[in-house]
Design brief:
single chain; about 375 residues; alpha+beta; 5-stranded mixed sheet; 12 helices; 15 strands; about 30% helix; elongated
Length: about 375
C-alpha cells in the first residue's frame, strides 16, 4: 500500500537517493544531504506550527508501507517572495508605429517581474522511476490540492507552479546561453541551483532591468520560451487537467512556463466530498485501475494522510475502509474523511453516487460540506 504523509527525518537517505537519480534540473531538491536535511527540518517546523504561516514549507512523502521506503515527494511553499525577491520574466508586446511611414511594428519582449510575490507555489515533485505509472504520480501531485482545500487559510487564493524549461542532457539551456550567460559569470546549473535554494540577491544585482527584445535573441533561444522539458510534459498535462493555465510568466533562466489557478477552481478541490469512515474487516480488493480509484484523506493538519480506494467502497453517507487502510490514514469509524477521484473522467463518479438530478443541488451540498468542516489537528 502507498500512502502520502508529511516528510520525516528518517526519510533523508531515500530522499537523497532520489535527488541523485533525478540529475540536473530539479533545483529545489539538490543531491546535498545538508541542504535536504534543512528542508526536512523546515517542513517539520511547518507541520508542527513552529514557524510563521507565510514562511511554511509543506513537504509530503509517498511511502511504500510494505517496503518501509519513501518513493516520492511533493510540496507546497506557503508564500514566495517575502524573504527573498521572487523573479520571473513576463512575456509582453511593445508596439511602435509611424503614420508617416505607414509602419506598425509589434515586438515581443521580456520584462523582469515580481508578480507572483505572496502567492503559494506547488513544487518539489519527484517520483522514483520504479513507481512511475499506475496513478502514483497523480496521487503524489494531487494530494497537495486536497491539503490546500482543507487548510485554505494557510495559503493564497491563487496557486502556481514553475515548470522546468528546455535543456539538453548536459543541463545546458538555450535561453541561458543566449541571455543569462551574458550577465552572470557562472554556469546555468550553478545559477539555477542558487535560485532554487532561495539565494536570489545576485539576480537583482546582475540582471538587466530593461526589457529584452526577443528578435535580438537567436532562434534557438526564442523557440524554447514557454516550453517545458520533455520529462516535465506529463506534470504540465496533469496540472492543465486540474485547471492550471499559462499566465504569461516564464523562468528567467531556462524560459520554462509558469501556470496558475485559483484554489476554488482546481478540479480536485471542486469535486471533493466528505464521508464518514466505516472501518471494516471484510476483504476489499485494492488493486484496481487508476480510473476506478478515489483518493481518501484524513483531515489532520499535522498528520495529514492520503491513500486510494476502489470507488465501489463509497456509499451515500459513508466510505468503507479496510482496517489496514484506516490504520494507514490514522482514522476510526465515525471520523470525517475527504474523497475525490484519482483521475479526471469528465464527470465525477462520486457525485453520481449522490443521486441528485440537477447540478444546483450538488452545488448546495458542496456549500453545506464546506461549512460543516471540522478544522482539527
Amino acid at each position: 500500500m502507498l500512502v502520502i504523509r508529511p516528510l520525516q527525518e528518517n526519510d533523508l537517505e531515500d530522499l537523497y537517493a532520489m535527488a541523485q537519480s533525478a540529475g540536473k534540473g530539479l533545483t529545489t531538491l539538490p543531491a546535498d544531504r545538508e541542504l535536504l536535511q534543512n528542508k526536512i527540518e523546515h517542513s517539520r517546523q511547518t507541520f508542527d506550527q513552529r514557524c510563521a504561516p507565510e514562511a511554511g514549507l509543506y513537504l509530503f512523502a509517498l511511502e511504500d508501507l510494505e517496503k518501509k521506503k519513501t518513493v516520492g515527494i511533493s510540496g507546497i511553499q506557503a508564500r514566495v517572495g517575502l524573504d527573498e525577491v521572487f523573479y520571473n520574466y513576463r512575456l509582453s508586446v511593445a508596439v511602435n508605429a509611424s503614420k508617416e511611414l505607414g509602419v506598425h511594428v509589434r515586438t515581443p519582449t521580456l520584462h523582469l517581474s515580481n508578480d507572483m510575490t505572496d502567492t503559494s507555489e506547488v513544487c518539489s515533485l519527484l517520483l522514483s522511476d520504479d513507481y512511475k505509472g499506475g496513478g502514483n504520480g497523480l496521487l503524489l501531485s494531487r494530494c497537495r490540492f486536497m491539503y490546500l482545500d482543507e487548510f485554505r487559510k494557510q495559503f493564497s487564493e491563487k496557486v502556481f507552479a514553475e515548470m522546468r524549461g528546455v535543456s539538453d542532457r548536459q543541463g545546458r539551456s538555450p535561453l541561458w546561453d543566449a541571455l543569462g550567460s551574458k550577465f552572470f559569470d557562472m554556469e546555468f546549473s550553478q545559477a539555477d541551483l542558487l535560485s532554487g535554494l532561495g539565494n536570489k540577491s545576485f539576480i537583482a544585482e546582475l540582471m538587466p532591468k530593461y526589457p529584452i527584445y526577443l528578435p535580438m535573441l537567436p532562434a534557438s533561444a526564442r523557440s524554447v520560451i514557454g516550453r517545458v522539458h520533455e520529462n516535465t510534459a506529463p506534470a504540465l498535462k496533469m496540472l492543465q487537467s486540474e485547471g492550471f493555465n499559462f499566465n504569461g510568466l516564464v523562468d528567467i533562466f531556462d524560459g520554462g512556463p509558469v501556470v496558475d489557478a485559483f484554489v476554488h477552481n482546481i478540479r480536485t478541490v471542486r469535486e471533493a466530498v466528505n464521508r464518514y469512515a466505516m472501518v471494516t474487516r471484510q476483504p476489499v480488493n485494492l488493486d484496481v485501475p487508476a480510473g476506478e480509484r478515489v483518493m481518501v484523506s484524513n483531515r489532520s493538519f499535522r498528520d495529514f494522510r492520503v491513500t486510494t480506494l476502489p470507488i465501489s467502497c463509497i456509499g451515500p453517507d459513508t466510505v468503507k475502509l479496510p482496517s489496514a487502510v484506516a490504520e494507514a490514514l490514522q482514522v476510526e469509524s465515525g471520523d470525517s474523511v475527504r474523497l475525490v477521484t484519482l483521475k479526471d473522467s469528465g464527470s465525477s463518479p462520486i457525485h453520481t453516487l449522490r443521486g441528485y438530478e440537477n447540478p444546483d443541488e450538488r452545488a448546495n451540498e458542496r456549500i453545506r460540506d464546506y461549512r460543516s468542516r471540522s478544522w482539527r489537528d
